[in-house]
Amino acid sequence: MALGDCWKQLSWFYYQYLLVTALYMLEPWERTVFSILSASQSPRADAGVSLTQHIWLANPMCSHVPQSF
Q: According to its record, how does it sit in the membrane (predicted)?
């Protein structure tokens, strides 16, 4: 019974993902390409934010600028 409940919950999250991103209008192969590309770009965006934060913290000339991280 727990596996069935888990499957229902995961499918509900997947349907929400499709609705929020409007992927329900695409064909299955287009959906797959979009999901792969967006998942591959996610770590790059996180690294960019992290790298920017490290540069700001390491630069002594920016010490007077308030940090909002």
A: Multi-pass membrane protein
Q: How many Cα atoms are found within 13 Å in the side-chain-facing hemisphere of 45?
A: 6
Look at the pTM and tell me if it is higher than 0.85: no
φ, ψ at 37 (rounded to 5°): -65, -40
What phi, psi does 9 have (nearest 5°)?
A: -65, -45
Question: Count H helices, E strands: the chain?
Answer: 2, 0
pLDDT above 70: residue 21: yes
* pLDDT score, position 41: 74
Coil, helix or strand at residue 13: helix
Length of the chain: 69
